[in-house]
Predict the structure.
Amino acid sequence: PAGIIPQDGIGLPAFQRPCLALVEDAAARGEAPAWQPAYLADRIRTFEGRPQIFGTQFDWDDQGEMSPLPIENPDGVDARRAGIGLPPLAETTRNHRLQSEREPRTVDLEARRKEMREWAVKVGWRSA
């Protein structure tokens, strides 16, 4: 599906940002599922260093568990997720954690976060 292609362009903010409007329009016309623009919007927001809206983006937390990245208005996240056909965040979090048990855990979280911030600046998601 065309809505998935922009998700993979993580190092191409000049591509992903305008694609969001296209995917949102496609979803509004019923040509793409409503979750596709939500995932892309969350991905863009987290790369820009802003809280996500739908809780679709995860990473290792300070306790070494896979957790959603910061969410704007977290009290309303499950209602927003339900509105686009996604399960409750707690269910998705459980699934991510089960899946992550098979993956190596990041040991140096600060180094990982620093590397991600530097990458975001380098490719143009953030200015500093």
About this structure: The chain has a mean pLDDT of 89. Residues 44 and 100 are 23 Å apart (CA to CA).
